[in-house]
């Protein structure tokens, strides 16, 4: 694999991981808000 292709591939992988992490964090925030609303 050439350097250019390698960095492109790593960039894609990183973006996928970052997307995944942000989705997980958003879910956590939503759950947190949900529980805050439920508690009296």
Give a verbal description of the structure.
- The chain has 40 residues and is mainly α.
- The protein has one domain.
- 90% of the residues lie in helices and 0% in strands.
- It is built from 1 helix and no strands.
- The protein is rod-shaped and about 60 Å long.
- Overall mean pLDDT stands at 88
The major beta sheet can be summarized as: none
How many distinct helices? 1
Q: Number of DSSP strands?
A: 0
Q: How many domains comprise the coordinates?
A: 1
Question: Topology as H/E string?
Answer: H
Low-confidence stretches: none
- Beta-strand portion reads under 5%
Oligomer: single chain
What share of the residues lie within helices?
over 70%
Which word captures the global form? Answer: rod-shaped
Rg result: 17 Å
Distance from N terminus to C terminus (CA atoms, Å) equals: 58 Å
Which class of secondary structure composition applies to the elements? mainly alpha
Essential attributes:
single chain, 90% helix, mainly alpha, 40 residues
Brief write-up:
The protein has one helix spanning 3-38. It is mostly helical and 40 residues long.
Topology:
Layout: H1 3-38
């Amino acid at each position: 694999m050439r350097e250019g292709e390698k960095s492109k591939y790593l960039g894609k992988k990183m973006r996928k991981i970052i997307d995944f992490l942000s989705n997980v964090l958003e879910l956590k925030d939503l759950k947190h808000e949900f529980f805050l609303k439920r508690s009296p």
